[in-house]
């Protein structure tokens, strides 16, 4: 799931949600490809289990704890609201996974 919104710096922030930092090659490779394809005008924020693992793949990019729904919502709730009708299913799937698979 990817959500985007403008940051205070003027660059649009983009939240990239996935199983990054879980120590599996597939998702880490996908993250590398996504970041390489991302235009420099975007400011990525990545959901991650192991911040150090993600930092080694993408130095200097902000992360949020993927396993803490409260942290993700706290950091992004203020800008998710305008996009909620569009991303409602994705957000509900993320919440479902958090509640039943962590």
Would you kindly provide a written description of the structure presented here, covering whatever features stand out?
The chain has one domain. The chain is built from 4 helices and 4 strands, in the order ββαβαβαα. Strands 1-2-3-4 form a 4-stranded mixed β-sheet, sandwiched between helices.
How are the SSEs ordered, and which strands pair?
Layout: E1 2-6, E2 12-20, H1 25-37, E3 43-48, H2 51-57, E4 62-65, H3 69-80, H4 84-101
Descriptive tags:
102 residues; 4-stranded mixed beta sheet; single chain; alpha/beta
Instruction: Report the strand count.
Output: 4
What proportion of the residues form beta strands (DSSP E)?
A: 15-25%
Overall shape: globular
The N- and C-terminal alpha carbons lie at a distance of 18 Å
Spans of at least 5 consecutive residues whose pLDDT stays below 50 are: none
Kindly report the average pLDDT value. Answer: 76
Oligomeric composition of the shown chains: single chain
Roughly how much helix do the residues carry, as a percent range? 40-55%
Strand order of the largest sheet: 1-2-3-4
The main sheet comes to: 4 strands, mixed
Number of helices: 4
């Amino acid at each position: 799931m990817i959500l985007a919104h403008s940051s205070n710096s003027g660059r649009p922030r983009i939240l990239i949600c996935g199983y990054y930092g879980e120590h599996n090659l597939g998702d880490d490779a996908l993250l590398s490809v996504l970041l390489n394809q991302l235009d420099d005008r975007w400011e990525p924020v990545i959901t991650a289990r192991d911040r150090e693992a993600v930092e080694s793949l993408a130095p200097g990019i902000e992360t949020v704890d993927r396993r803490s729904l409260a942290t993700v919502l706290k950091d992004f709730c203020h800008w998710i609201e305008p996009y909620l009708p569009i991303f409602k299913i994705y957000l509900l799937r993320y919440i479902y996974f958090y509640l039943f698979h962590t």
